[in-house]
Amino acid sequence: MGHIYTDVTVKGREGSLKLKNVLIDTGATYTVLPEKTLKKIGAWGPMREIDLRLGGGRRVKAKAYGIVVGIEDAEAPAIGITFEGAQTVIGVETLESLGLKLDPTTGRLEFTRPKGMAYFYREGDDRYVP
What we know:
single chain; mainly beta; two-stranded antiparallel ribbon; 7-stranded mixed sheet; Cathepsin D, subunit A, domain 1
């Protein structure tokens, strides 16, 4: 299987941007965006600066922001991180929020549940309900 790309919309307080052919990185926990993109849309934050270890082992100081991400016709809140030299990728936390998974046999994104936020709660019952 090769690399998988998709079109994405990122939103913040001040607007939204449509990004074309964004890499889906199932090895990345969070979505990564350049700081200028986060500032342009008015992302919420930065919430805090964190120490982050990249896939190659390099450590960086990263800033975490709140964003809204849309893929196809699904939209959900996500964490967007940035650091010096950040290149845009969509991480698995964002895919999970959107209810998407990558099918390695087809190389396509597929929905894992009905579109929308997942919240499993039965009134009067404070247990998690699968």
